[in-house]
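Colleagues,

For the teaching module next term, I've prepared a clean inverse folding example: a structure given as tokens, and then the sequence designed for it. I'd like students to try predicting residues themselves before seeing the answer, so please don't circulate the second half yet.
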């Protein structure tokens, strides 16, 4: 880019349409005008919207940019070459300059280099409505800016359009003001008289006067009437001729302007008048532009006296012109004679004129000619002249004698087309009258004001009147006196407004009888919409009215009935429903049911039967009945009806509709429905009782089987425990046999413990209280730990356990102990049901967002019939006394519940017995499960005397349990004080404060909960704050919660591992320090 200081300012080119653009600008006459608020609002708005310091409305003429409105700029105009707007008029799109100093076109511009130091510029063109760019609405800033967005450009363009709209409004206002001034000057300075008037009508709709609304100064000079505004013509001129009112009234009524010359004898003046309608037609206003031609008329009269008669005559004649002599020949004919009749002038003048007249018209023509030569004047005489081709043309003559010269001046116009039209019109009217006279209705015609001038023959035959009696408004004579005033008032209003008229009223016949008629009238208008005449008819509806009365009588009787009574036409649209029927189905009023087809009275599923089967049967057989439901229109409830339908006939036996008298049988149907419902309920109750009995029997059978199994499983471990215990007490066992005996006792005691834990888990599951401790869990670790618990059992049966684990698998979110319980249960089952020397495989895979564990064994397999029940409570494939495998049948039910609590699924597969089984578990990776805080797993106690120097108060009413626990605690180094009841425990607390309290819960007189409440009510120096552990056989979650609420810090269920008890004491003491 070049250095802007070393360059000359860039001169913008001149637009190609500069001359036309400047002409468009000057047309608005806006340059050098004072500031105007409308334009200033736009520039202020633009500056505010876009946060700009400078906003201008810039208009470019030949040499400058002139500012109609400025915000933030001191000058009113600048040189055209110096302004950036010179470039903006070269385009019809907004011109945007983000930084003028970086643009070669503007870098040297004086307004860029010096004050105001323009850097940013945006200008929207001011496009006139004919497309010329007048200038810009521009925004300037001394700081560079980002280009405007499309939305900002559109807003600026809209503001520019508002500027142009203001220019157009300003121009229009100037034109209106100029026009008003010109009109005012013309109105007050013209030589012609001018006035605006309002036509006034009498009660019959005929014009009878007019009021002056506005007059110009010349009005009084030409008419001699002073202070005319607000007065009527007859007030100013009482003996005013009626011709003026009739002419002006015709102008107002027809909307057609008229120009005429008229003498006012009352004013002793002649006027040349141009009258025309102004403003809206309903205002009945017209304007008169006139001159006083009295003097011109006087001069014309004098001129006519001296002017030759022929010139006088031919001045007003047209087309054919002739001069006729007394000898029966034409003396002269105009050239148009040949054009209209085909005869040359010499052919006409060489023969008597009677040779060219139609034979039927010769005598009347001769008599008219003789009358002319007697001194009379002919204004309108018709006859037929023969064309050279043999046809005849109708001519209308005007003639005047010149007795001194013994000639007649005549002029004629060709009226053949009019005559043909009159003939056609007469024939049309004759056809119309013939048709009108033969219709059964009365017919009549009236003028635009309602003045009846024609009736058909039927009217006179019925009323016995004549046209003279009935014309105009005479028809009121045959109207009933009770109705005539209303009829007259309504029909006058329609005649005045042009609205269609329709009414019903009685008319008196020639016999004095009144019959009811439906009367209608329509306006006949011209192409401009002006009413020319009215055509009306009267139709005898007496029979219809009588039928209505009969219907009303029927309706009165029907409304007293409580049944549904209704009638409809053959389109199945109701035209009558009695009041009881309407209330029965929830219809509000007559209009509602008349707009509701019959089909909608029924439910959708019944409508096809009613419309397409039942109604056709009624129309064929005459009557039919069916029990069906009506639909209540408000509540939608069903109404059972005996629907009895028959068809209606007119007097000629033609079917005209359907009628029904239907009875509501809803109550009866409800009773029947109740009976049917009770019968069904009895049957269903019997079925449910039978089903319940079978279910109970099956449950009892399962319960009995389970109790038998439970008894077996609980008693079986007791047998070796008791046997080995007695052998140990005999003292006859050596050291090896003693170790074997103790191991057997421990194994069977753990087996009983596991059975109890399974029962408790099932109880928790069935109560929805099984809880999880949620954390990220490595399934590889869980599987490995579970394998360790079953490894000895597998080795005992020489079963090979194969691992196929995917180690690179994301952890799952869950309870590690419970998941280990799942795997242990599945592996235990696999080992249990796999024969010696078999194989168990455990797989771990990741499937998308799931972790999948499969336990595959080569064992007994599962019967296909039992496979769907394998995860149910207390279900075993073999629960007989001869079964080979033990257990309560709870393990797999617990597995399913734990897996589902982790958001997973479990299922079993087997090809059948002796085909092995596959158990599959799928768990979501990172799934969420319900969490309950519990103690962390027990760490093994490694020290030999972890409870050394601790004083422990032990409370238990069971001697064996108390002595065992005391011995175990003392073996771990504790000093134990053992008591047998809560009362003794409170007494011991009065003697010393132990480090920890270990108490049973289920004790006589004062249980562990009551004891803790007593202790916690003591002050700290009397043991109120000592740590406490509940050691109890009550092992439910509810028991644990109750123990903690009563004041225990820990809850352990019996039997408890010694290490677990010691570790719990250690952990509790650490947490309370």
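(Answer key — instructors only)
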């Amino acid at each position: 880019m070049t250095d802007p200081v070393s360059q000359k300012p860039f001169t913008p080119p001149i637009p190609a349409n500069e001359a036309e653009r400047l002409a468009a600008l000057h047309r608005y006459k806006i340059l050098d005008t004072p500031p105007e608020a409308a334009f200033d609002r736009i520039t202020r708005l633009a500056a505010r919207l876009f946060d700009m310091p400078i906003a201008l409305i810039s208009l470019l003429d030949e040499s400058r940019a002139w500012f109609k409105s400025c915000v933030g700029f001191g000058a009113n105009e600048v040189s055209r070459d110096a302004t950036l707007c010179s470039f903006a008029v070269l385009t019809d799109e907004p011109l945007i300059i983000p930084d003028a100093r970086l643009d070669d076109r503007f870098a040297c511009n004086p307004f860029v280099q010096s004050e105001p130091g323009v850097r940013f510029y945006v200008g929207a063109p001011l496009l006139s409505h004919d497309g010329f760019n007048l200038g810009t609405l521009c925004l300037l800033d001394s700081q560079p800016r980002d280009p405007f967005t499309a939305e900002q450009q559109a807003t600026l363009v809209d503001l520019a359009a508002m500027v142009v709209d203001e220019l157009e409004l300003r121009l229009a206002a100037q034109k209106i003001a100029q026009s008003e001034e010109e009109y005012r000057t013309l109105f007050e300075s013209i030589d012609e008289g001018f006035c605006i008037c309002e036509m006034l009508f009498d009660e019959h709709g005929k014009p009878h006067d007019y009021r002056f609304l506005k007059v110009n100064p010349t009005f009084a000079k030409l008419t001699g009437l002073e202070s005319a505004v607000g007065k009527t013509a007859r007030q100013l001129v009482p003996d005013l001729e009626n011709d003026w009112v009739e002419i002006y009234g015709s102008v107002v009524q027809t909307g057609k302007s008229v120009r005429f010359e008229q003498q006012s004898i009352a004013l002793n003046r002649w006027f040349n008048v141009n009258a025309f309608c102004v403003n809206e037609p309903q205002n009945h206003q017209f304007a008169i532009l006139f001159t006083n031609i009295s003097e011109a008329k006087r001069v014309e009269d004098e001129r006519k006296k001296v002017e030759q008669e022929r010139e006088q005559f031919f001045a007003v004649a047209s087309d054919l012109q002739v001069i006729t002599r007394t000898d029966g020949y034409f003396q002269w004919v105009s050239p148009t004679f040949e054009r209209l009749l085909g005869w040359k002038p010499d052919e006409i003048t060489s023969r008597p004129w009677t040779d060219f007249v139609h034979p039927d018209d010769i005598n009347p023509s001769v008599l008219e000619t003789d009358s002319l030569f007697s001194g009379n004047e002919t204004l309108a005489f018709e006859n037929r002249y023969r064309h050279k081709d043999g046809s005849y043309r109708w001519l209308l003559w005007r003639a005047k004698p010149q007795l001194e010269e013994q000639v007649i001046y005549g002029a004629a116009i060709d009226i053949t087309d009019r005559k043909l039209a009159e003939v056609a019109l007469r024939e049309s009217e004759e056809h119309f009258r013939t048709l009108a006279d033969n219709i059964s209705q009365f017919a009549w015609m009236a003028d635009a004001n309602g003045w009846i001038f024609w009736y058909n023959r039927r009217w006179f035959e019925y009323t016995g009147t004549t046209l003279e009696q009935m014309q105009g408004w005479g028809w009121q004579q045959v109207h009933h006196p009770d109705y005539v005033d209303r009829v007259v008032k309504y029909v006058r209003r329609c005649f005045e407004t042009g609205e269609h008229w329709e009414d019903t009223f009685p008319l008196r016949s020639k016999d004095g009888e009144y019959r009811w008629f439906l009367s209608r009238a329509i306006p006949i208008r011209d192409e401009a919409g002006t009413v020319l005449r009215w055509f009306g008819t009267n139709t005898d509806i007496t029979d219809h009215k009588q039928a209505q009365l009969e219907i009303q009588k029927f309706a009165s009787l029907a409304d007293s009935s409580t049944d549904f009574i209704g009638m409809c036409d053959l389109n199945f649209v109701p035209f009558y429903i009695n009041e009881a029927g309407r209330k029965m189905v929830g219809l509000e009023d007559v209009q509602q049911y008349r707009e509701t087809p019959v089909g909608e009275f029924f439910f959708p599923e019944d409508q096809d039967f009613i419309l397409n089967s039942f109604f056709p049967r009624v129309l064929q057989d005459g009557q039919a009945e069916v029990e069906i439901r009506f639909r209540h229109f408000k509540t939608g409830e069903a109404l059972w009806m005996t629907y009895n339908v028959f068809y209606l006939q007119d007097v000629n036996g033609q079917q005209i509709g359907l009628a029904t008298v239907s009875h509501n049988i809803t109550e009866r149907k409800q009773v029947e429905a109740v009976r049917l419902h009770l019968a069904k309920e009895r049957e269903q109750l019997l079925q449910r009782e039978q089903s319940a009995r079978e279910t109970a029997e099956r449950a009892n059978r399962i319960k009995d089987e389970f109790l038998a199994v439970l008894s077996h499983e609980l008693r079986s471990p007791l047998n070796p425990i008791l046997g080995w215990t007695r052998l140990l007490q005999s003292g006859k066992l050596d050291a090896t046999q003693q170790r074997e005996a103790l191991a057997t006792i421990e194994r069977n005691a753990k087996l009983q413990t596991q059975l109890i834990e399974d029962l408790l888990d099932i109880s928790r599951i069935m109560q929805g209280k099984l809880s999880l401790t949620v954390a990220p869990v490595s399934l590889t670790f869980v599987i490995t730990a579970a394998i360790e618990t079953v490894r000895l059992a597998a080795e005992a049966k020489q079963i090979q356990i194969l691992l196929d684990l995917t180690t690179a698998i994301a952890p799952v979110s869950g309870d590690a102990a419970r998941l280990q319980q799942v795997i242990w249960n599945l592996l235990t089952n696999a080992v249990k049901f796999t024969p010696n020397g078999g194989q168990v495989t455990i797989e771990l895979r990741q499937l998308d967002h799931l972790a999948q564990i499969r336990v595959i064994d080569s064992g007994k397999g599962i019967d296909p019939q039992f496979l769907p029940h394998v995860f149910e409570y207390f279900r075993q494939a073999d629960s007989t006394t001869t079964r080979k495998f033990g257990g309560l049948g709870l393990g797999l039910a617990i597995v399913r519940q734990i897996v589902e609590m982790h958001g997973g699924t479990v299922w079993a597969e087997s090809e059948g017995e002796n085909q092995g089984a596959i158990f599959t578990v799928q768990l979501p990776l990172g799934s969420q499960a319900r969490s309950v805080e519990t103690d962390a797993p027990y760490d093994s106690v490694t020290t030999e005397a972890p409870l050394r120097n601790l004083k422990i108060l032990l409370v238990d009413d069971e001697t064996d349990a108390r002595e065992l626990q005391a011995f175990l605690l003392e073996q771990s180094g504790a000093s134990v004080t053992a008591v047998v009841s809560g009362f003794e425990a409170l007494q011991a607390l009065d003697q010393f404060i132990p480090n920890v309290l270990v108490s049973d819960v289920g004790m006589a007189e004062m249980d562990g909960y009551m004891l803790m409440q007593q202790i916690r009510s003591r002050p700290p120096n009397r043991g109120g704050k000592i740590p406490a552990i509940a050691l109890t056989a009550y092992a439910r979650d509810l028991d644990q919660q109750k123990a903690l609420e009563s004041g225990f810090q820990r809850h352990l269920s019996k039997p408890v591992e010694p290490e677990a008890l010691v570790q719990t004491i250690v952990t509790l003491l650490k947490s309370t320090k």
